[in-house]
Amino acid sequence: MEILTVGSKRYRTSYGRYLEDFELGATYEHRPGRTITEVDNIHFSLLTMNTHPMHCDSHFAKDSEFGQPLVNSAFTLAVVVGMTVNDVSAKAIANLGWKEINLTAPVHPGDTLYAESEVLEVRESKSRPMQGIVTVRTRGFNQDGTEVINFVRSALVPKRGHGVGDILSDIADNK
User: Fold this and answer.
1) How many Å apart are CA 158 and CA 124, to the nearest integer?
2) Is 149:85 a contact under the CB 8 Å cutoff?
3) How far is CA 12 from CA 31, 89, 160, in A?
4) Is the pTM of this model over 0.70?
5) Tell me: the pLDDT tens digits for 100-132?
6) Phi/psi at 37 (nearest 5 deg)?
7) What span, in angstroms and rounded, lies between the C-alpha atoms of 39 and 152?
């Protein structure tokens, strides 16, 4: 997060990173954590039409090997990706894709998730000279430090001065 001075006693918060701000091998810890509630899990599962009883039927789930409901894995992915936005993709033009999505331990209602992303690659775009591609490996952990998910994600990120917010800021500053 960057605080920009835009006038006398006037400031604007800028989130995310430009291509030049990413450092190969750097790890960004994403905070705050997010506690997943039973209501979160049931709402997301029903909203996405995933009615598997392991997500929304505690009586059913208690007889499983887990002994309790599981958080919908798509919800776990969505929360962890969301946690990364301020550090990884708040300035991105587009997400280019995810790969190697691994669910490494169960997540249960009441767990608190934390995440970190390691920069695997930073390169200029071959077809878009004012943009580049950033690839990160993100790992999500529960409150005990157990990894619950990991994935690789790539995003198209602008160079400094060429982001959507930069253009809007320039317009607003010249009103």
Assistant:
1) 9
2) no
3) 21, 18, 16
4) yes
5) 999 999 999 999 999 999 999 999 999 999 999
6) -100, 165
7) 28
